[in-house]
Amino acid sequence: MSEERIIGQNxxxxxxxxxxxxxxxxxxxxxxxxxxxxxLAADAVDAIRxxxxxxxLVFAAIGIVDxxxxxxxxxxxxxxxxxxxxxxxxxxxxxxxxxxVTFDWRGHGADPMxxxxxxxxxxxxxxxxxxxxxxxxxxxxxxxxxKQDRRDAKKATGKAKSSPxxxxxxxxxxxxxxxxxxxxxxxxxxKSEYVPGPVRGKVDAWLTANKGKWTxxxxxxxxxxxxxxxATGVRRGTSPVTDKQxxxxxxxxxxxxxxxxxxxxxGEKLSNHRSDADFNLTSGEASAMIECCNWYIQDRAATExxxxxxxxxxxxxxxxxxxxxQLALIDGELASRTPPSDNHLTAFKDWRDASTWTxxxxxxxxxxxxxxxxxxx
Length: 377
Prior knowledge:
Layout: H1 9-21, E1 29-31, E2 36-38, H2 41-55, E3 58-74, E4 80-94, E5 99-111, H3 116-132, H4 147-157, H5 164-174, H6 180-189, H7 197-209, H8 216-229, H9 243-252, H10 260-275, H11 283-308, H12 315-335, H13 342-354, H14 359-369
Antiparallel strand pairs: 1-2, 3-4, 4-5
Helix pairs in contact: 1-2, 2-3, 6-8, 9-11, 12-14
């Protein structure tokens, strides 16, 4: 960081509120080559951004101070990686008081092509956020070597034999299949009373239908959707509920679209919050209540709109046509690209041969295949 910066009292209080409310961020990223978990930049930005918004803080990158090529490293894969160093200037400000502070943060990124600078910028943002607000990765301190880290290191150097279970897990990770930790996390989120019943039913059905073939991309999307409802786990936080949130929840539970039992449960918690000093709702819980009510209201509106609209001819046939078009695109792209490994190709063939395609799955696979390297002519 650059020279010392003085932070105003009002700004400092809001930064403290973010630090109190932000929990550890889960390590959802996985490096297949070096075998370790890491915090995704998107997860860090998403978790801390929400807390900043709740406190009325603005955090922004306002300029690139310096960018330079610092090294060229020959990798064991036979390619030379370019190591870039970039320094980004960040601003954090409290619009209410006008207090602000800027600081510089340096990061590095390596890539054999042209992505090194962007990797450095992404890493700079992630660690600037996590260090500034004192938020850690969920699993452990990065300087601490866990038992799993040691096992991974031994496997990578050939000093330990992999068990059948470990081999299966490695094959799944290589094929883009979600980890068991992610599936368990989905099941934890489903326990929240704020996840609407129909949503819980659809997710349960999805888990059952795709057992053993949950893709990492689809699972991450499912977690993101459930996070909006579930006021549990890392997103619960401790920041106090605001008056505006309470007013909005009061208004939403009056809607006829919100089931009576849901409205009564939420109303009871609001009453307890207002009458009992030992029962304090958090901002995260109120946000989950709002998402829950909004889902029922939007679902009712969509249902009524569908009833009022003229009946379409053969909607199922139109969806099937759209799926066939997507499959044609996927097959065309696959012909010109090389899967990163046999596991990737096996996972794709299993899905392609299953004949249980959906438009969403087609979109996921098309986006995945587009990241595979193009075949050399």
